[in-house]
Each structure stands twice: as C-alpha cells, then as structure tokens.
Amino acid sequence: MLSDAFxxxxxxxxxxxxAWNVYLFRSQDALRVHQSDEKLALVEFKLFVAENYTSxxxxxxxFSRFEQRFMERLELSEKIHK
Length: 82
Prior knowledge:
Layout lengths: L1 H51 L3 H26 L1
Helix pairs in contact: 1-2
C-alpha cells in the first residue's frame, strides 16, 4: 500500500512538480533579465541626455517626465507578467 503510493508520487506527481518549478524559475529569470535591460536603457538615456543638454532645468524636466513614463511602463510590464 505504502509502496504503491510512493510509486504513484514518484512516477506522476514528482515530474509534474519538477517541471512546474523549472518553468517558474525560467520565467522569473527572464523577467529579471528584462527588468535589468530596462534599467540599463534608463542609465544609457540619462548619459545621452547629460552629454547633449546643458540647461539644468531642461535636464530635470526631461528626467522627471522620462522616469514617470518609465515607471508606468515598468508597472504595466509587471502586471502583464504576473
């Protein structure tokens, strides 16, 4: 009886649980890579703006608008991936 239950778990349940965990790990890893790419894009944009714009007020306005749009899209992306 106990050996039948163990065999059932080993044959049918354990592979399904293992496959589900692998899927979750890969999807979380892909999400982390995507978020790090977005953060890198933000840093590159800030560098571009800093090199090409001179007015401090212009820089503050551009960064505040860009960060606001970026955070909105990041939140939307997180909602979609959940």
